[in-house]
Specification:
138 residues; alpha+beta; Nuclear Transport Factor 2, Chain: A; four-stranded antiparallel β-sheet; 42% helix; 25% strand
């Protein structure tokens, strides 16, 4: 029993340290001081072949959905509208969609260590097709 009790404060401290680091990174990202790539190049968890379902992804993930959402919100404050584990070129990541004043951004969070790996603005109002149409009319 004693070991369980001493591990809980340690876990809380690690979570607090992770959150402080994520908040600092988030401030830097939000102010434009750092740029995140728009696609995942790698993560700490390489998926074995044949792992394709959410249930199988969950067995490999070390980061909870709540931790991944907190990391995403630290770099892009707003409201989480979608969160799922995903295979990005063989690497396991959390895909967190965050709605904010300027639209929605998909944040990729490492499912092994909660590091934010990538951020990509989502087109959720059809503007992308509208701009393409304008270009064709010339």
């Amino acid at each position: 029993m004693m070991k369980e009790h001493t591990m809980k404060p340690t876990a809380k401290i690690l979570t607090a340290v992770t959150m402080v680091a994520a908040l600092a990174a988030g401030t830097a990202y939000a102010t434009g001081a750092i740029q995140l790539p728009d696609e995942v190049k790698s993560s700490s968890i390489k998926l074995p072949r044949g792992v394709e379902s959410q249930a199988e992804f969950a067995k490999h993930a070390k980061v909870t959905q709540q931790e991944a959402e907190a990391a995403a919100l630290a770099v892009m404050p707003g409201q989480v509208v979608k969160a799922k584990l995903d295979d990005e070129d063989g690497y396991l990541v959390w895909q967190i969609d965050v709605k904010h004043a300027k639209g929605t951004t998909e944040i990729a969070v490492d499912a092994g260590n909660a590091k934010v790996l990538a951020a990509e603005a989502e087109e959720d109002d059809g503007n992308e097709h509208e701009h393409e149409g304008r270009g064709e009319r010339g």
